[in-house]
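step: validate -> pass
step: tokenize input -> pass
step: predict -> running
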Amino acid sequence: MTKPPAASPNRLARATSPYLQQHAHNPVDWYEWGPEALEKARREDRPIFLSIGYAACHWCHVMAHESFENADVAAAINELFVNIKVDREERPDLDEIYMQATLVLNQGQGGWPMSVWLTPELKPFFAGTYFPPTTRGGRQGFLELCQAIGKAWRQHRAEIAVQADKLTEVVCGSLLAAPRSAEELSLAVVDQTVEMLAGALDPVSGGLVSGSTNKFPPSMALDLMLRSAARQPEGGARRQQLVQLVQLTLDHMAMGGIYDQLGGGIHRYSTDVEWHVPHFEKMLYDQALVSRVYLDAYQFTRRPRYAQVARGILDYVLADLQAPGGGFYSSRDADSEGVEGKYYVWTHREVMEILGDDEGKLFCAHFDVSESGNWRDPHDPDAPKSVLRALRSYECCAKLFAISPEECERRLTRGREKLLAARAGRVPPALDDKVLCEWNGLMIASLARGGCVLDERRYVDAAARAADFILKEQLHDGRLRRSFCRGQTSGTAFLADYAALIEGLLELYEATFEPRWLVRAAELNRVVLAEFWDEEGAGFFFTPRAHEPLLVRSKDMRDGAVPAGNSVQLMNLLRLSAMLGDKTLRALADRMIRAWSGQVHGSPWTSERFLAAVDFACSGPAEIAIVGDPARPETQALLRTVHDTYLPNRVLMLHNPAGPETRVASPLLAERVQVNGRPTAYVCRNNACRRPVTMAAELEGQLAACL
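step: predict -> pass
step: emit ->
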């Protein structure tokens, strides 16, 4: 097969998606998903080849270089199919449907690039992921496969139609909520799920193994485990066991190569069970979710290392992923100069030349850098390289080099700074500079929470800038747009976009007590109820009412790499109900929990965030109202007590009697006054209120009793 000279731009040159633009010079006759392509397939009665991926996807790049840039392959698929390229991050509705088909056809195996063949009626009949250019390693070659599919379309059309109908029926059924179970969801179900998760965690290095060796950061599972642990008796064996398992995972992630030991930030997943060698892409949603669980663990355990890692992730986001206007970019690629991980790995010689003999030896001992290397670059197997990981503690290295642990930490910090400066001179991985509403909402929430827990106002300020950006650039006529890229908005927003942004706005309100954030959250929640709520079956559809017709209007609550829109929105309903005193919202949340109990019982492994909301609903949130000027030290002391306390099921509101009259209409704040003119805290739960307190120590005791 031959690779052509640089092709003239195809239709994808007009796309807003950075991923689609990566394919703008392929010789493939690509279309974006839309009326032009779909009508062509119907008119010419040709099958559709649907290729779905994303900008930071390493194997997407590989398949593009091997097949889509190849003149012979392009000529064949241009003749056989109508070829459509989709950015899964811009069109998660399409990705959800056709990923389900891929999973069904491949015994539960899926991923990206996703390669799906559809009838002109958009029904899938064959699917896979990456295909090599020629048959190897048990995988059929892409060109050979395309030719076989083309032949089958001509000669066995009736059989393909039957298969497509059956597969479509299965896919549609799997993307709608399961019938209600006879067993209600309760705290006992939460604890049973935690037992299953705890039993499946790797007892050596933590985490859950996916496939043979891969490990993804199990943020939502760890969140659920901490929630369950907090309800166990202080000092009890079960509580200690759960906390130890959470710490085991977080400690090994923090020490491993999945955490960028120089620049901060978390990579997408580990390719080994020790969290050592990552798949090097950095996704915004991972930064949001992983920083959040480190913040929770810091509140629970008060271990400084967890605060340090959370800061490292949040600082990375502000340094590398925040756009000038305030929104956050989507990802950094795994590859630089066409090689995965090249930007992040080091040879022993490089480290020694940059740091010198003394600092270099200490650095190499701590971060596992040796002349033989700890990783083999498949593109350069004869050059031993190392992925940095904290192999030895400060105390261990201090003993080895006869220095104090404090001096060891100072010298290693200097070494990291020098190597980070040297790394900045390398060619960086490509940046996907689109701003996604959903992922920004998740990041806003984590930054706002991080600013409170870590007492870092700059994180709250960054969250507010991002929220202002989304509301200015991606909210038009009261409706959100999913994506913003280089001055252009595109795409209808989905349930997850609204839900994540509402969550971010609620966290911003609790961090700033500016009423505008709560007002905006309530406004967007009304849009969600009008556009997405399923009155007949309860819960929320993935797409709004006027969305283009697809195979199915799905309604799912399975949490994946990001929490499901229904899971996030369930928690939003519960929080808004408590904050605004809106019993209708609580009734809708209760309907969701009852209606979806069957799906949760059948799939607890993919229900962690949904069950976190169940935990909130069944426990009953602590309703905390502070009355006082936030500028006063006494008010700050009360707020600091709240933010220092691990209390996942709570809402927090504040009224400043010395400020302008902007009291939010809420029963939590109604008739709340200062006691003896001093800032005062009110703590209520399950329609019962404790006596108001003015001292931080008294508030600490009341909050402890709420766990």
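step: describe -> Residues 1-5 have pLDDT under 50 and may be disordered.
step: cleanup -> pass
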